[in-house]
Structure formats: structure tokens, C-alpha cells
Amino acid sequence: MRQTLGLATRAIVSAGALACAGSAAAQTLTKIEPPLAAVLGQTSGYPGEPVGQDGGPDEDHVTIGAGGLYQPAYMGARKYQFQPIPAIDIKRGPFFVNFQNGIGVAPVDDGTFTIGAGVVMTFENYERSDVPNRFNKIDMGAGARGFVTVRQFGLEASAGVTQIFAGGTKGLIADFSLSRPIVVSDRLFLMPSIGTRWANAKHNDRFYGVSARQSQESGLRQFRPGAGLFDAKAELGLQYRLTDHIGLGAAAGVTTLLGNVKDSPIVRKKTAPFGMGFLTYTF
């Protein structure tokens, strides 16, 4: 049984979980460390978790589960929503399926460095009913993602870039996180984490901006935030091993908007908490 826990930084999703309807946490929240489901974040189980007790690379695994997430309808909204979420983390050699990095391959995965690429769902979205004056709608999308993770001195630093190519904003998002696994006992693990994200002008303008036409139709003032950092978060995840196959995970944290996006006319709350929990089974 591995003694070190990997948790998401963050999602998402957040990032992130597949059923989440778009906040910064959606992509990096869930990171599954067999035999448990660990949470946080970014929104995120992926190959290259800490090495096993034998010092070898992380073993292949299949972990599935379900839980719930409570968060704003979008980052900046006053309205909160609860959503059921699935959890999944599959690793077979260099191939992986998970919520943080999607479906892809990590050709470098030696316990210290993980480098890979995948196709990932993006959850930066909102419905017309969620935003002031129902002025716009952003759909969920898909993106091409590349990422690198470095583990040294008990810390785990991760960085990634996602280019959205279907749905969503068609923008570019870069993320960075730093986390520290804490082994409380052979059953209980903690993971404090911090993270931030940057996006190009296409993403920020389409998500938080109001064009001249939209301003005329909705009555909201025109706004163009441009490129820059747009959020940061701090979170704490915990994971408890019930049996060798069954685990409980929970996480709570706070996300705040940064830069120009925090002044968008669709932002009603610049800082917001979130929380989630779930149950998993590892085969």
C-alpha cells in the first residue's frame, strides 16, 4: 500500500469532474490516489503519482467513484449550486484517463518527473440564466493539454497548458500549482495546495468580457479584460482509507479572481469558497 497521497492542486477540475458546470475548481478538484479518491483542484488523478513503497514507478490501477460538489455557478457568480460528480482514474503503463489531464499518454513518468499530453474536457462555462441580464452563454468544451509535474523535497509542483479547440472560449489557459502531501497515519492523508491560472485575451474576453453588441442588448457596460492572471486558490484535501479498495475523500478551499477579470460586470463575488466529497473503489 502506498504511503504517499497525491491530491489535486487547483480545479479544477479543476478542475476539475466531468459533471461539473464550470468554475476554477472544476478541473482540478479531484486527484485519485489508489486505493483512495483524493480531492483538490485543479481540478485530478494522473500518471506519475508518488512512487510505491518498493521505490518503483506508480502501479497501474482503475479507480471509480461518485460524490458531490458545492460551488458557484461560475467563478464570480452569487448563485451556488450542488452537483453530483463521477470520479475516475485509470492508468495502464503510459496511458491514462482522469479529470485533470483527460485522456492521453505520459511517456516520461519516473516518480520525480512526469511529462505528458492529453485531450481534456474544459468546464469554464455558464448558462444564460446564471449571468446578469442573461447576456451570454458559454458551453463546455474540449482542449489539447500538455503538462509537467516535478516531485522534490516532499513537494509536488505541476504546470500545464490547455488550448481549447471545441466549445468553450477557444482560448488558451495555463495553470500552476504547488502541493505538499502529509501522511497523518496509514489510513489518513492530507494535502494542502495553492494554485493560480493565466489565460490569453481570447479566453478572458469571451468569458468575462462584454462586447459592444452584448452591451447594447443587455444594458451591461462594455468590458474587455485582456490577457493575464485570472484566479488563484488555496485548498485542503483529505483522504481516508476505509479498506484496501474503498476510500473516502473530501476537500474545501477558496478561490479569488485576479487581474482585470475581477472588475467584469458579470462578477458579483470576487472570492468564493467551495467544497466536495466522494467515495471511491479501486480494482
Which regions are unreliable across 5 or more consecutive residues at pLDDT < 50? 1-30, 34-57
| Biggest sheet statistics | 12 strands, antiparallel, barrel
Order of secondary-structure elements: EEEEEEEEEEEEHHEEE
Strand content: over 45%
Principal-axis shape equals: globular
Strand order of the largest sheet: 3-4-5-6-7-8-9-10-12-13-14-15
Tell how many strands the DSSP assignment holds: 15
Helix and strand composition category: mainly beta
Mean pLDDT: 83
Helicity range of the residues? under 10%
End-to-end span in angstroms?
13 Å
C-alpha Rg, in Å?
18 Å
Q: Helix tally?
A: 2
What is this structure's SSE topology?
Layout (H helix, E strand, L loop, with lengths): L29 E4 L2 E4 L21 E12 L7 E13 L2 E4 L3 E8 L3 E10 L18 E12 L2 E13 L4 E8 L2 E2 L4 E12 L1 H8 L3 H7 L9 E14 L4 E12 L13 E12 L1
Antiparallel strand pairs: 1-2, 3-4, 3-15, 4-5, 5-6, 6-7, 7-8, 8-9, 9-10, 10-12, 11-12, 12-13, 13-14, 14-15
Can you put this structure into words, describing what you see?
By secondary structure, the protein is mainly β. 5% of the residues lie in helices and 49% in strands. The chain starts with 29 loop residues before the first strand and ends with a strand. The relative contact order is 0.20.
